[in-house]
Design a protein that fits this description.
The protein is an alpha/beta fold. The protein is built from 14 helices and 13 strands. It has a single domain, classed as Ribonucleoside hydrolase-like (Inosine-uridine Nucleoside N-ribohydrolase, Chain A, Alpha-Beta Complex). Bound molecules: alpha-D-ribofuranose (RIB) and calcium ion.
Length: about 350
């Protein structure tokens, strides 16, 4: 084999390795903006290792209409009209919408008034845009849903192959240590339990960034001051949102603002910020006290019973295949350092 050929071969190998290392991660953000949703978007916009292929809007913190307006105002502020922003579902699959202006401000963005949008909404229905892009880029798209799972459920119900065609799905939702909407249920799941059960059982493995790790990842006044020290418009916006979140958290006795949605985006960017455990997760849709709970089967089996006379007895264990990587621990400082430094940008 000639030296020239060997040299060419090694150069092409190096270029393949380099290309693989610099290719940004293609993501679709499904969101109900929402103050922490806004910070998740800010993180994605300031991440050179992320390419936002689309933003799809789902009703949750605010109505579908308000959410679309908020998303368009934020991409307009960022001068990113190249990013498709599409509205999606108008309400949960099987219940009335529950909005959260108490937590997110009357406009959903901490009452921060952004200029009217110059970017226009994409004509697609959100779930259809998700299907189109995942099929356009098979095994390359990471779905990052940070609101109720209505759009994702509609997309994967219409095209079940999505479960095998996505690269990953990293959700903000759920909890294996109690809820924040009720004693058992986290807000995104509680706002559409039927959609969540469809998503957890679609055949993919969901990375579940729940309250268990979000509650350990708190934005503080110090982080807000740090963001505000940058004159960049998006840093200033992020600081205003953060200030609202921290003050709202303090009103209810919290030391800071849980970075639920930004942490999910952080996990999509740097999975090393969390520790995960494979589990089987199902969503309770019937319980009087537990509707919307993400019920984690940690051991991966249920006992199976057979009738023996006047009683049942256990005859075997029934294995349950894992369907979720549940985040059970987090490195808050590693995430918060990433978040603040990326949004502040290089001095
Ligand atoms: O429980 C927190 C979740 O509910 C976050 O996504 C927040 O934005 C709200 O949607
Ligand atoms: Ca959200």
């Amino acid at each position: 084999m000639s030296l020239r050929f060997l040299l060419a071969l090694s150069l092409s190998a190096v270029s393949v390795v380099c290309a693989a290392q610099v290719m940004p991660k293609r993501i679709i953000l499904d969101t109900d903006p929402g103050t922490d949703d806004a910070l998740a978007l800010m993180l994605a916009l300031h991440s050179p290792d992320v390419k936002i292929e689309a933003i799809t809007v789902v009703p949750g913190n605010v109505t579908a209409e308000q959410g679309l307006e908020n998303a368009l105002r934020m991409v307009s502020l960022a001068n990113r009209c190249d990013i498709p922003v599409a509205g999606g579902a108008k309400h949960p699959l099987n219940q009335k919408l529950i909005t959260a202006e108490m937590w997110h401000g009357r406009n959903g963005l901490g009452n921060v008034e952004l200029p009217s949008p110059k970017c226009k909404a994409d004509a697609h229905f959100g779930p259809d845009l998700i299907i189109e892009l995942v099929r356009k880029y098979p095994h390359e798209i990471t779905l990052v849903p940070v609101g109720p799972l209505t759009n994702i459920a509609l997309a994967v119900s219409k095209d079940p192959a999505l479960a095998t065609l996505v690269k990953d799905i990293v959700i903000m939702g759920g909890s294996i240590s109690g809820g924040n909407s009720t004693g058992a249920a986290e807000a995104n799941i509680f706002n559409d339990p039927e959609a969540a059960q469809i998503v957890f059982n679609a055949g993919w493995t969901v990375t579940m960034v729940g309250l268990d790790v979000g509650n350990k990842t708190l934005l503080t006044d110090e982080h807000v001051r740090d963001l505000a020290s940058s004159p960049r418009p998006l840093a200033q916006f992020s600081a205003q949102i953060g200030k609202f979140m921290v003050s709202t958290g303090k009103k209810y006795g919290m030391e800071g603002a849980a970075m639920y949605d930004p942490l999910a985006m952080g996990v999509a960017i740097d999975p090393g910020v969390v520790t995960t455990r494979l589990m089987r997760v199902d969503v309770e849709t019937q319980g009087q006290f537990t509707r919307g709970e993400t019920v984690a089967n940690r051991e991966g089996y249920n006992e199976h019973y057979v009738l023996e006379g006047d009683h049942y007895t256990i005859d075997r264990l029934e294995k349950l295949p894992a369907n979720a990587r549940v985040c059970v621990d987090v490195k808050p400082q590693r995430f918060l350092d990433m978040f603040v430094s990326r949004i502040k940008g290089k001095p």
